Amino acid sequence: MCFGRCARCIGYKLLILALLSIVANILLYFPNGETRFASEHHLGKYVECLHGILGGGFLVLIPAAVFIGLHNDDCCGCFGHEDCGKGCAMLSSVLAAFVGILGSGYCIIISALGLSHGPYCFTHLERNWIYPFTESSGGYLFEYNKWSECQEPQNIVQWNVTLFSILLVLGGIEFILCFIQIINGILGGLCGLCCSHEEV
């Protein structure tokens, strides 16, 4: 079934995207490769939300595994009719796609909030750890001259903007792929069930 091949293709893409999300989220915990900021609890609140590890990562790995394994599913065969079983399996993949939509949606929302809120850093003006860009509502992203306000961690604004942007894009692609699989799963399921009824 071409619907099954399409689902497996989506599954492999989701697998790669989920692993990239996990890596990107782990990197957020270690600005400039340093571990001391995590151990000293000097990370932003949106960094610690696990949106790339849990949302765009593990919750997307579930549908990825389901989609990749679809070629083995015959869903009991429905009285010996293979197409009915494949149709049933395709319809069940829709539920897995919803899990992926929840995970990727969570990743998108937290990434957007992280970009809008800005990093948690030590500033030379306040001489304290604060969120210096919260009032800008994301406007700081285009005011590069203000990025130097953050003294520690070094280059934290660039680090956060890059990784949150990557997670936002990865989450968006995951969301789109899971949505495509919902349509693919419904069409494949109905097609398989219809074919089996015609054989009866």
From TrEMBL:
Family matches, as Pfam families: L6_membrane (PF05805)
Which parts pass through the membrane?
12-30, 50-70, 91-115, 161-180
Location of this chain's protein in the cell: Membrane
Bilayer topology reads:
Multi-pass membrane protein
Q: Does the keyword Phosphoprotein apply?
A: no
- Asked if the Swiss-Prot or TrEMBL record annotates the protein with the keyword Iron, the reply is no
Q: GO CC annotations?
A: membrane
Q: Per its UniProt record, what InterPro entries does this chain match?
A: L6_membrane (IPR008661)
Per UniProt, the keywords (alphabetical) are: Membrane, Transmembrane, Transmembrane helix
Coiled coil where? none
Q: Name the domain of life.
A: Eukaryota
**PANTHER family xref list:** TRANSMEMBRANE 4 L6 FAMILY MEMBER 1, TRANSMEMBRANE 4 L6 FAMILY MEMBER 1-RELATED
Family that this chain belongs to: Belongs to the L6 tetraspanin family.
The identity of this protein, by name, is Transmembrane 4 L6 family member 1
Q: Which organism is it from?
A: Cathartes aura
Source species taxonomy: Eukaryota, Metazoa, Chordata, Craniata, Vertebrata
